[in-house]
Known about the structure:
There is one protein chain. By secondary structure, the chain is an all-beta fold. It is 0% helix and 54% strand. The chain has a 5-stranded mixed β-sheet, with no helix packed on it. A 4-stranded antiparallel β-sheet has the order 3-2-6-7, with no helix packed on it. Strands 8-10-14-13 form a 4-stranded antiparallel β-sheet, with no helix packed on it. The radius of gyration is 36 Å and the shape is rod-shaped. The model has no long low-confidence stretch (mean pLDDT 91).
Amino acid sequence: xxxxxxxxxxxxxxxxxxxxxxxxxxxxxxxxxxxxxxxxxxxxxxxxxxxxxxxxxxxxxxxxxxxxxxxxxxxxxxxxxxxxxxxxxxxxxxxxxxxxxxxxxxxxxxxxxxxxxxxxxxxxxxxxxxxxxxxxxxxxxxxxxxxxxxxxxxxxxxxxxxxxxxxxxxxxxxxxxxxxxxxxxxxxxxxxxx
Length: 194
């Protein structure tokens, strides 16, 4: 089994009520069960431990008793939730004078691009590339002047992860061309005479 939760069901015949049943789970007597007199169904919700789990049910009536034993082997599946890591820009916040910045990230434990979502300033972006071999995500982010929030999230059957970074875009200062003005002489051509 790969789930630690189990609803154990069994039929127990030729008894009148639950007091005629003894139940042990992993060697410990348990009253954690129910018995339906009409359907003759015994049930118990169990949390299995890693490895072998021994279940024993004994039913007793005036003619004697019978014991049935069952072993269930539980193997835990190692969960592998996504891991998102924005690799560029590495600084958070990141300051730039470029209106277009190429974002790079790694997203581990996903296999398909549709398990990844990319946002720039809250708007989902479709124009990103995902290489399932290298686990690399890359895309160009068009920035607005001021603060820009980049978020990458990923999900799979085992969980969810998200990472965000802030990029501050300042337009480069464009200086006017140099201006030279003659103060003295103030006119050209200047004639200096006598």
